[in-house]
Structures are given as C-alpha cells and as structure tokens.
Here is the input.
Amino acid sequence: MSLDALQGPSAGSRFNAPALGPSGFLDLLETHLGLSLPEVPRAQRVAVYLSCLQSVGAGRFYTDSLAADAMGTAARLLAWRDEWRMGGWLGQLGREPRIRDLAAVEEVAARELPPGEAERLEAVLRALRAGARVPVASVSLVDELALFPCLWQQVLALLPCVRNATSAAYLNAQGTGELRRVQDAVLKLCQGDAPPDALSPVADGSLLVVRSLSASTAEHWLSQRLQRAPTDRLILAESQGDRLDGTLAATGAARCGFTSPSPLRPALQCLSLAMALCWEPLDIHALVELLAHPVGPIARAVRKQLLRVVAQKPGIGGDDWQAAKLALDADPAAEQAEAKDEVPGRWSELITYWLECPRWPQQEGAPVDQLAERANRLADVMQQRLALAMQNASSDATVFAAAARQCVDVAQALNALRVRGVERVNPRTLEQVIAFATPAGASDPASVAQVSCVRSSSSPAACIEPADEVIWWMPAAPNLVSSLPWREDELSCLRDLNVQLRDPDLELKAVFTQWMRPLLAARKRFVLVLPTGDAEVHPIRQVLALLVQGFGTQVLDLDSPEVQQQMADEVSAQPLPSVPEVLHVGRSVPLDQPTQSFTSLGDLFHSPAQFALRRSARLKGMDLPSVDEDRRLLGTLAHRLIEKLFGQDGVLTWSVEQVLSWLKPALSQLVKEEGAVLLMPGASVSLARFQARCEQALPTLVILLREANAVRVQTEFEVQGSLFDVPMVGSVDLLVHLADGRTVALDTKWGGDKRYAASLISGDYLQLAIYAKLLEQQTGQEPCALGYFVFDTGNLYISAPDVVPGANVRVPPPEVSVGALLTHAKATWEWRAEQFKAGQLDVPPPKPGTEWSGPDGTLAVQGPKPWDQEYLVTLGGWQ
Here is the structure.
C-alpha cells in the first residue's frame, strides 16, 4: 500500500518485475487495457460535485454547511462518496437520512462527475470480466489483502497468481548477533504475544542511537559516514529528507531523491497573487508581492520598475504609474526583456490586463468566465516559460510544468462551475479551488536521486528489502489511523448494502507491524537518529525502550568533544569586531560630488563614515519594498494633497466649503492611486483619521495664506546654487508669494508639533536656512520668513512677525539666525573636509556626547539616524 514511497536502487525490483504501489499499479493496468485517460484534477471533481449537491434541492443534511462553506463541504462529502464507492457502494438508498441524501446526489453524480480512483477501478473490472488480458504473470502483495479496499480486492481476484501476504509477511528477522535478539522480541510483539522480559543492553554496536542538538550536525555526521564507510544501506526519512539531501549534496555525497512538495514554490504562488488583484478594494500587499515575485505574467525587469513606483506611492493609476507605463513602452531594454521572456504584447497592454484589471466587491463575487480566462492566460505564460526552460535544459521545467497544470486545473474547475449555472464566485471559493488544484505543490527541481545514491524511503511500510545498515532519520510524530466519520447506525446500514469499509482496528495493527519493518530489515546494524528539540516520541522508540534495558541512555552524542574532534577542525574563537571611533583609510577621501543636498550634508556633518560608505564607496542599502500604513505614508499623501490643492486656479480665494468640496473626491482618488493601503480591511480607522485631519488642516492653511495676502503658492519649488563653493540643490515644499512681492518658504510636516515649534528657537532649521540662501541666489530675494506647517494639528510656525496673521511666531535668536547657521555649516564643512583629506572618518554613535563636537564654531554632532544602521554594521558592532 505504500510502495509508491520507494526511492533509489532496489535489489528486488528488476526489468518486468517492478515494485509498485496502488497508484503505479493502476496506471500499469490501464495502460495495458487501453483505458488510460488524462488525469482529472481534484479541483474539477470538487466543483462538479458541488453542483451535484446543489442540484438536488434544499432540506438536506448538508444544506447549512454548504451555505457556510460550499467548496469545503463539497470536498468532504466527495471524500465520503469516494470511500463508499471504493467499498462497493453503487448509490443504493438506505434507511439512514444522510445515506438517502447522498444516494439522491449520486443519481446526478453518476452522470456528471469525472472519474476518480473508484470509477477507474470499475472500468478495469469491466474490461477484465469481459475477457481482456494483461501481461501480468503474478502479483505478490506486501500487505494483507483485507487491508485493500473492496474494489482493489475484486480486481486482484481477476489477476493470475496473486500471492496474498499474511500477517507475518515481510516481518522476517534479517539480523545477526545481538541485533537478532532484539528483532526476535519485536516479532513476538507483532504476532500479538505479550512483551518478553527486557533484554540486556546491546553491546556489539548493532543498535546505535545518535543524538544531536542540531539537525545540521547530524546531517554532516551522516554525510561523513556514507562517504567514509560505504556499505549496503537504507535510509528512512519520513520528514526533513529534502534538507538531508541538501547537506549530502553540499558535502560531496549523492542525493537520495527525497522530495518535499510545497505549494509555496514561486511559480505556484503566481496564480493566487494574480487572482488576489481581482477584488475591491485593491490588496496592495498582493500587488507588491506580485511585482517583487520571481515569477509573474510580466517580465521581472518591468515589474521591478513598477515596484519602485508602488513602494513610494502605494496604488495604481497615479501620475508616476502612468509615466512608468509610457517609459516602459518606449524603452528598448524592455523590448529585449519582452523577447527574452516570450511574453507578447506591449507592456502597457499587459500591465492594464494583469494589474489594472476590473475589480469586483468581495461579497458579490467575480464572474466565473473572467476568472477562468485569467487562469488560462496565466497557463499560457507558464507554458511559454516551460518551453524556454526545456530549451535551456533547466531544472525549473518541472516547477513550470506544475504551475501550468495548476492554472489549467483551476480554469477547468471554474468552467465546470459555469457550465452548471454558477455565474460568480467569492474570494473564499476561489482560494479553495486553487488549493484543491495544488494539493501537494511542486518539489524542488534539484531534488532528484543521483548516481551512487543509497536506497531510501519516506515510509516505514516500504522498507521491505533487507540492508546491511538501516538508518531511521529523526522519527517524530507518526501518521495514525483515522476513525470512520459515520455513526454506528449508518455503518450498519452501509454493511446491509454490502459496502465493505476499511477496518480501523485491522489498519492500526497493520500500521504497528509496518513501523517495525525498518528494524527487522537490518542485517548488521540499525541506526536511530533522534529528532532535535521536544519532538513527539515515535512508537519505535517506545518499543525499543520496552524491549532493551537502558535503551536511550547509551547514545552517540554528536555534540560531545570526542565526536566533534573527529567531525570538524578546531577553529580558535575570534571576538566580534567592535565599532571603531575613527576610521583611518590611509588615503584622502574625495568630497567632489556633482551636487550636494541637505541630506548629504547631514550625513557628512553628523555621520562621516556613513557619508563615505554611501557616496564615496557607493554602497547601497537593502532595497526591501514594502507598503505600510505609517507616518511616512500619511506625510507623503499630505504633501501630494497640498500639491494638488495649490494647482487649482483661484484656490486662495476659496471658502472653507469650497476647499472641503474639492477635498473629498480628490482625497478619495489620491488614496486609491497612491495610498491604497488605507483602503484595505482594518485600515478604515486610519483612513477616517487621515481624512479628518485633512479636512481640518487644508482649509486652515488656505485661510492663513489668504489673510497674509498671498497671491501665488508654488509647491516643490526646485532651488539650486552654491554654498561655501559647493554646488547645492534642494526642493522647497511651499514657496508663498505675497502681494507686496516678498516670499515665504515653508516646510510641511505631518506631525511633530512641539519639535518644529522649538526648532526655530534652538537653531535646528538648517535645511530652511540653506534653502533661504539658495532662493536668494536664484531669485535675487531672500524670503522674508521661514516656517513649518504641521499637518497633524494645522499649526503654522513662522520665523518673523507681521507676515502671516494667525501663525505662531517663533523668532530665532541672533546666535541661530540664518546667517549664523550658515557660518556654522561652513565651519563644519571645512572641518570635515580636512578630516577626509587626511583619510580620517569619524564614526559617532547615535546621540553622541559633546566629546564628538568639532572646533569652535561648528555645528553640534547629532550622530547617525536609526534607519542608517545597515551601513554602519559593515564596520562592526554585530552583537
């Protein structure tokens, strides 16, 4: 029953005498009988059975469950129906209500449901009873015939020379010496005898228990054992076999071929992400994941450019988004990427289809035909990637094949629903369809058995061939027998209908004997590698502890110094590097940037080492795009609203009602295009607060500027010039032109009311001071006032009186005036320039003390910002 889990070379399997499990044997019979058909995806069968359940009307025992979880209920009842059919049920009516209800469903399912294993076996039965022959001379069963479902028993009864396994079959003790004593005691347990007296400890090394605190240590130990002491081995790994294979391959041993199918392979995630964009509101996190994903319906280079836009302005359809689309269509490099990836169509067309697609309310559901079309188009993409992978002989071909099959299965399931009158499906149903289409996922393309690998298995029941050494790798929680999900009166009714269901008691007894097979298969040595951590104790350990005195106390501890000396070379301990206070690079570090900005000056003044790493060494920080509902996003949206507001004609003459009338649709459109994270479930409170603050701040700002006799407001005004002979550039958030010809430079901030109110007094407004100097150079006129508008509170703080009535005036003291700040900045520049010329780079800590200050007249050193640590860890301080 478990021989499908066999891997690697087999001593008993040879040409024309294969060792097969039920799945492989059924395929063989269908091939010889001419009954082979394309495999029917489980998702399609569940979808069809759902329509069958719905077609028999309401008032059934499953009606309420079907209303709550249609696909889940259909899958569960289909499993019931298939198990009954395997037991010989033909849809007969019974006296129990649930059986009568499913019998009514079976009348429809018998005509419409695609074939499963039961229907395939019934077709084989009809062919064999009609006189068809298969070239099978004999069949040897590994498990008792009574463990097979009824239909399998009927098929096997029609085949020649079927040798039935007894309870003692494949339970022969193969060992010698003291290992044989243990195996003989195990055989008595398997035969139902009482446990014998505990045996004396095994002293000849034929029963070895291995323990380690880390799985990695055990994997390296096993790799060394396989390479240094080759012999006839069998490795049993029910779990973590793929990880073991990875270590074997990395250390020079051959892979055994363990697989770990996972639905999390990148190609298999693509369909779910593409479907997640079909719902209103837009799932911005799914959009980011699709754009950043290794596999997608659009070339990765194109998605990367769109990802940069979304990371800054999370949404679809904004100005930057549209500009990126136009640039991609005109980019020759994008055309090459298109040809390479075999994706037809202009990028703007593909972006429109996959990312700007129609979205439907989740409660109403999406049209089935459009979702099916989407799955089919993605299947075409995966087929093209598959063809390219096969052309390049890439191991990724298997993953793309699984992804293409997944998309086709989902499309077929959706079409099956559509044919049966289902017009729309909700997100939950669609997720279940995709899950049913990907029951086990796809395996790692590199997880194939290699030449000279040892025999291996992922199931103890498949360990039927003896080996000199059997290694059971980290046995943990076993797969137990499940009970029958029906009431006793229903089981009695099914028995009256001649339905032969499985016997859990018989299965449990068989499972116990199967657990003993690996131990009994060992000729010279049985090795038990214990799992790490607090894993559940496997029954094989409990049996050995019962039969052998002191079992579990005499173990090979891989973490002991004696074993470690044999396994690894000793490496002397080295302390982690600490952060130096000063870096001496041994040569001059140039400062000749094309232009400087306030940000670059801040790095130079307050964290010189970071300046050198970013701008001289040109290191780039980790680019992990994310969209979060944080203050930065709210501040960016507030800036954009101000830009759009002051782009309206006559805005300075608007009343409060006019501002609010414009604000509601403008804010709604802006959030949709550049702040879609605020539209997602759970963000409604944040969106309401943001809207309330906008409704307070924007009218307040318009009123303040109108009362100041402002005639024009320029947003994001670009300035450039020079400061202490250094080219400088910057952008003023708001440049307000007054009626008398004067100007006011304002910086807008989302929050930090107290901080920015105090900064004008404390002199912490160097950015505005620099912009004031650049404005004077560029326009010939210095602003009459500088200030901050704090969006969160609607407060305006300004540096001069009698400029903006209603503003909060904070006049800087003479020692921190604009001129004084620029003088301090010049002195700081000269100080740092001398240090860089001498090859000396200070590495101040966050919030440094006065000891880090420079000569008199320089600015106080503030140290690096918290978000700059990724650069400074290159200098040490990892602890």
User: Anything to note?
Assistant: The two ends are 53 Å apart (CA to CA).
